[in-house]
């Protein structure tokens, strides 16, 4: 996978001029291996958790309580509202804790300020705030169908943010705030690019190492000049892929909002309640399949585009971010850990003393004991002489 090239103010490159010249002469563009894995067990558990909290529990409570108890519709919606927001009480705080408390491991590059969160976290927080309005208002004002608009209120703001990123990217407006690993004043890229970096680094737990490999790959791409076209324009197929993915998710968000609104206001509450909650996950699965298809097609198109210009894309296993470099870093860390353990403390029925200090104490004790033995021998000799006399 070859990421998008940033503006010149983005991350620092470790690509040397000699390495760039070598790649240009060989007509082979070597990109760092991103080492991305899907962690399917993690995905399966998380999806099961979301379905359990957002479909199974609300529907079970709503339909059982409606059938077996004399509870009012207002009370039913109030109980369902509390159940529907349950999963957000876990995933959002855990992601925030991972970004704040473990910032050096998962946070965006270029800043260690705790509130400099990534693009996905800020977007998700904004969407959750809007999502909370129908959950809180619908039971209070007896506007029960409005409760079913809650999932639309979650998807809609994300689509708006994606649209904003597309507009600023098209008109090349520099943004006045940090955006994930990019500093202030950077021209914003389509939102799909930031999701690529943030979701893999935080949610899939690949950490800052993944962020560095993504941006290193960008900078290698930018430094490989064929037509004297600067940085960001080096790989038009990849830029097109990021734009297509962003447009695709904007379109799918609009489709979801339209279908949800139609079902909410045109069908009875008993039917709409279960359908809208189940429809949300059906929409996610269909949208994810389309996203995967677009990504595969776009990456194949990029490889063909470079091949048509006499350049082969390959993974650089030796350069920055390559798998060989990762192994060397792991070996270095292991050697450092072993050397640190070698100088670690030794405990022997007393206070903890570093090993080198312990050896010094042992040598001093042996010298003192030998000196004491010599003194005893001298005293014994003097006593024997006195006894003879």
From TrEMBL:
Membrane spanning stretches: 43-65, 119-141, 147-171, 247-266, 272-295
Ranges where the record places region Disordered: 1-21, 316-389
Comp. bias (Low complexity): 1-18
Record carries keyword Transmembrane helix: yes
Compositionally biased intervals (Basic and acidic residues): 316-343, 355-365, 376-389
Protein name: Uncharacterized protein
Keywords recorded for this protein, A-Z: Membrane, Transmembrane, Transmembrane helix
Cited PANTHER family: AMINO ACID PERMEASE_ SLC12A DOMAIN-CONTAINING PROTEIN (PTHR42024:SF1)
């Amino acid at each position: 996978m070859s990421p998008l090239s940033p503006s010149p103010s983005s991350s620092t490159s470790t690509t040397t001029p000699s390495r760039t010249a070598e790649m240009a002469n060989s007509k082979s563009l070597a990109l760092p291996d991103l080492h991305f894995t899907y962690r399917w067990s993690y995905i399966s558990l998380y999806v099961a958790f979301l379905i359990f909290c957002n479909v199974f529990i609300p529907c079970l409570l709503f339909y059982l309580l409606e059938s077996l108890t004399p509870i009012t519709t207002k009370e039913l919606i109030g109980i369902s509202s509390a159940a529907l927001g349950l999963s957000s009480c876990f995933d959002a705080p855990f992601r925030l804790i991972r970004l704040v408390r473990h910032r050096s491991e998962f946070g965006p590059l270029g800043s260690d300020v705790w509130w400099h969160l990534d693009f996905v976290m800020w977007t998700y927080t904004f969407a959750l705030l809007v999502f909370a309005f129908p959950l809180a208002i619908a039971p209070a004002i007896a506007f029960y169908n409005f409760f079913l608009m809650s999932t639309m209120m979650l998807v809609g703001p994300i689509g708006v943010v994606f649209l904003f990123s597309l507009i600023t990217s098209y008109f090349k407006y520099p943004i006045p705030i940090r955006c994930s690993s990019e500093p202030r004043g950077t021209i914003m890229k389509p939102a799909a690019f930031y999701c690529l970096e943030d979701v893999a680094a935080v949610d899939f737990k690949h950490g800052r190492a993944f962020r560095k490999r993504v941006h290193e790959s960008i900078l290698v791409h930018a430094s490989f000049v064929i037509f004297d076209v600067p940085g960001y324009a080096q790989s038009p197929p990849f830029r097109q892929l990021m734009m297509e993915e962003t447009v695709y998710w904007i379109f799918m968000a609009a489709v979801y909002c339209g279908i949800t609104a139609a079902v909410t206001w045109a069908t009875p509450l008993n039917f709409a309640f279960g359908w809208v909650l189940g429809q949300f996950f059906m929409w996610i699965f269909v949208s994810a399949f389309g996203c995967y298809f677009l990504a595969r097609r776009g990456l194949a198109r990029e490889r063909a585009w470079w091949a048509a210009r006499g350049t082969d894309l390959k993974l650089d296993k030796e350069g920055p971010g390559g798998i060989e470099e990762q192994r060397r870093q792991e070996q270095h860390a292991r050697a450092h850990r072993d050397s640190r353990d070698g100088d670690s403390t030794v405990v022997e029925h007393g206070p903890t003393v570093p090993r080198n200090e312990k050896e010094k104490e042992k040598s001093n004790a042996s010298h003192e004991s030998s000196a004491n033995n010599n003194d005893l021998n001298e005293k014994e000799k003097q006593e024997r002489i006195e006894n003879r006399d």
